[in-house]
């Protein structure tokens, strides 16, 4: 925005408010996001590409929210060769235009009532956990009001454009007094070229810092790690530097399926979720295992496993809580033994504490409020010690921790 809080001139022209360095930082933010969301007005006025241009690596999914589908026939976002595009709309909106988008390779998803909270729930179900709302003021206000925004990045350019009707970054929030203002906390300020970047979290905001093993625990997990001078390496998504450590990484493993046969599981997560039901003498349990085997992604396998576990608790093996660490460890060992490059990567972290930084998993990851147990990180450190010959080949010590 300009110094007087405008994101475009009165007529809508916005090229460019901020400088080249700031735009480069936005590309970096996109490159660290699972998905980028904009509204229909942004598509009509700016015709954006929403790719992580000039940044190598991951390209986020692009999501357009439009209730009426009053969108242009031709737009950069409809070119799915650059990145995948999803259009979220109200049920029944412009079915003819939906077909045209589908023919271009754009996925259209209908909602009974299109709103930011339901779109974010949908993103979560698809495995998009880090979502960048790069939208105009109207949709930004709606997202903030729905409490789906956790962090704000405000790029302030040393320009003044004026205009009562010039658009602003956030639309109407219904606040009539300054005492109602939303406060940003843990704010930081950074000069980027001639611009200033203000970033901060919206209250209330969960503590996203994962819990690492305590000073007393670390030696029991990896004797080579100094608890007082430990370097912490976090991993989460597969495009992170150490993201291949994730149980969601696309590394197939050849493991038994519980029937005496070996099966090539698409990911560790497929194997882990299926083994909640392996060995149960019930046709429905066997059907669930087969359903997880055929899941097209680890996110889908996780959804199936978790959903069926809640729906049919009687089909989950009775020893699951006691054996799930061992199941995960067997799968991890197979994965690292199958892919020597992963072993080299794991050994390169010797002396560091490994943290699975998921804010959503209280057992394997850090947890939303930092209360997670980080058992995946612990298992990886134990495997690292086992490979280096500094720890016996057992998971009992990790379980005891």
Automatic annotation (TrEMBL):
Keywords, comma-separated and alphabetical: Glycosidase, Hydrolase, NADP, Oxidoreductase
Record's protein name: 5-amino-6-(5-phosphoribosylamino)uracil reductase
Superkingdom to which the source organism belongs: Eukaryota
Listed Gene3D superfamilies: Dihydrofolate Reductase, subunit A, YbiA-like
PANTHER family: 2,5-DIAMINO-6-RIBOSYLAMINO-4(3H)-PYRIMIDINONE 5'-PHOSPHATE REDUCTASE, DIHYDROFOLATE REDUCTASE FAMILY PROTEIN (AFU_ORTHOLOGUE AFUA_8G06820)
Pathway: Cofactor biosynthesis; riboflavin biosynthesis
Protein's GO biological process: carbohydrate derivative metabolic process
Domain NADAR: 235-387
MF terms (GO), sorted A to Z: hydrolase activity, hydrolyzing N-glycosyl compounds; oxidoreductase activity
Domain Bacterial bifunctional deaminase-reductase C-terminal: 1-198
Organism: Urochloa decumbens
Catalysed reactions, semicolon-separated: 5-amino-6-(5-phospho-D-ribosylamino)uracil + H2O = 5,6-diaminouracil + D-ribose 5-phosphate; 2,5-diamino-6-hydroxy-4-(5-phosphoribosylamino)-pyrimidine + H2O = 2,5,6-triamino-4-hydroxypyrimidine + D-ribose 5-phosphate
């Amino acid at each position: 925005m300009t110094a007087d809080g405008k994101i475009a001139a009165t007529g809508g022209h916005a090229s460019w408010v901020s400088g080249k360095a700031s735009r480069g930082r936005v590309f970096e933010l996109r490159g660290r996001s699972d998905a980028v969301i904009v509204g229909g007005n942004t598509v009509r006025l700016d015709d954006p590409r929403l790719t992580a241009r000039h940044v190598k690596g991951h390209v986020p999914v692009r999501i357009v929210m439009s209730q009426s589908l009053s969108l242009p026939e031709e737009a950069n976002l409809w070119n799915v060769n650059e990145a995948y595009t999803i259009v979220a709309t109200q049920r029944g909106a412009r079915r003819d235009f939906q077909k045209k988008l589908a023919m271009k390779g754009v996925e259209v998803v209908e909602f009974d009532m299109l709103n930011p909270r339901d779109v974010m729930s949908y993103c979560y179900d698809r495995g998009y956990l880090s979502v960048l709302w790069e939208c105009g003021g109207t949709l930004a206000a709606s997202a903030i009001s729905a409490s789906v925004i956790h962090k704000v990045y405000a790029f302030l350019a040393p320009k003044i454009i004026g205009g009562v009707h010039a658009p602003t970054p956030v639309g109407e929030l219904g606040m009539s007094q300054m005492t109602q203002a939303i406060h940003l906390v843990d704010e930081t300020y950074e000069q980027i070229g001639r611009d200033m970047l203000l970033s901060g979290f919206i209250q209330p905001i969960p503590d996203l810092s994962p819990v690492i093993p305590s000073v007393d625990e670390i030696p029991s997990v990896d004797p080579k790690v100094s608890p007082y001078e430990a370097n912490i390496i976090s991993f989460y998504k597969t495009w992170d530097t150490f993201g291949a450590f994730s149980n969601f990484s696309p590394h197939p493993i050849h493991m038994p399926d519980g029937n005496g046969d070996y099966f090539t599981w698409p990911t560790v997560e497929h194997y882990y979720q299926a083994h909640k039901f392996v060995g149960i003498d019930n046709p429905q349990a066997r059907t669930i295992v087969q359903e997880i085997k055929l899941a097209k992604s680890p996110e889908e396998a996780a959804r199936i496993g978790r959903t069926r576990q809640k729906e049919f608790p009687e089909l989950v093996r009775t020893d699951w809580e006691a054996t799930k660490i061992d199941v995960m460890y067997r799968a991890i060992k197979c994965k690292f033994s199958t892919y020597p490059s992963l072993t080299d990567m794991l050994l390169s972290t010797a002396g560091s504490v490994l943290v699975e930084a998921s804010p959503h998993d209280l057992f394997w990851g850090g947890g939303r409020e930092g209360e997670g147990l980080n058992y995946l990180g612990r298992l990886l450190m134990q495997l690292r010690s086992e490979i280096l010959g500094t720890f016996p080949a057992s998971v009992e010590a990790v379980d005891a921790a």
